[in-house]
Each structure stands twice: as C-alpha cells, then as structure tokens.
Design brief:
The chain has 121 residues and is mainly beta. It has no helices and 11 strands. The strands form 2 sheets. Strands 2, 4, 5, 6, 9, 10 and 11 form a 7-stranded mixed β-sheet that branches. Strand 7 (67-72) and strand 8 form a beta hairpin.
Length: 121
C-alpha cells in the first residue's frame, strides 16, 4: 500500500512564505509525474504545480513566479515553496501521483490527506 503524506501547512500573513513537503512511500523514482493540487472552500480542486521525473515543471498562472515545485527522488520527497502568499492562496493543499509499474496500482490516482494553508492577517 503506497501513500503520500503532506506536511508544512499553517497560518501565514499575506506576503509570507511556507514550504510544503510530501513524502511518498515506496520508490518515488518510479513515479514520472508528481503534482500539488489545492481546494479552497466552496471551490473545485485545482492543479497548482507539477513536476516530471526529468525536472520539467508547470504551474497554474496564478502562482507563476511565486511558487516553486521540486523533487528529491533519493528522499522520496516533493516540495512546494510558496512565496508572496496571498489570501486567495488559502486552501487545503494535496499531493498527487498516479500509480505506475513499481509504485502502487498503475493508473490509480493517489492523494495525500492534505495540509491546510491559511493566509490571513
């Protein structure tokens, strides 16, 4: 049974920074793509950032230039560095990966339980 466990959420003032971490059980190097999603109250879950095994990244427009996603396969960790946080970044942030051969069930979506980020003064 593979799992994803997030940490690092909390309360931060506008303009502040937080770093989220997601630790994957098993061998993360077998996972080609890893993502961070978020879901704000009353809104649908949205893709925030993704990173491939080769290090290629993509971001939703609203966080470009402020958030940075990275991964360390040796530590089975994917991180999301969030700077210049805004109240509209308030959400539960989820780590996500799709099962592949050697990690979980191929094609199955795996989600962490989420970590809450609150941006407020």
């Amino acid at each position: 049974q593979v799992q994803l466990v997030e940490s690092g959420g909390g309360l931060v003032q506008p303009g502040g920074s937080l770093t989220l971490s997601c630790v994957a059980s098993g061998s993360m190097s077998r996972i080609p793509d890893m993502d961070w999603y978020r879901q704000a109250p009353g809104k649908e879950r949205e893709l925030v950032a993704g990173i491939t095994s080769g290090g290629r990244t993509n971001y939703v427009d609203s966080v470009k230039g402020r958030f940075t996603i990275s991964r360390d396969n040796a530590k089975n960790t994917v991180s999301l560095q969030m700077n210049s946080l805004k109240p509209e970044d308030t959400a539960v942030y989820y780590c996500h990966a799709i099962g592949r051969a050697g990690w979980g069930r191929p094609g199955l979506n795996y989600w962490g339980k989420g970590t809450l980020v609150t941006v407020s003064s």
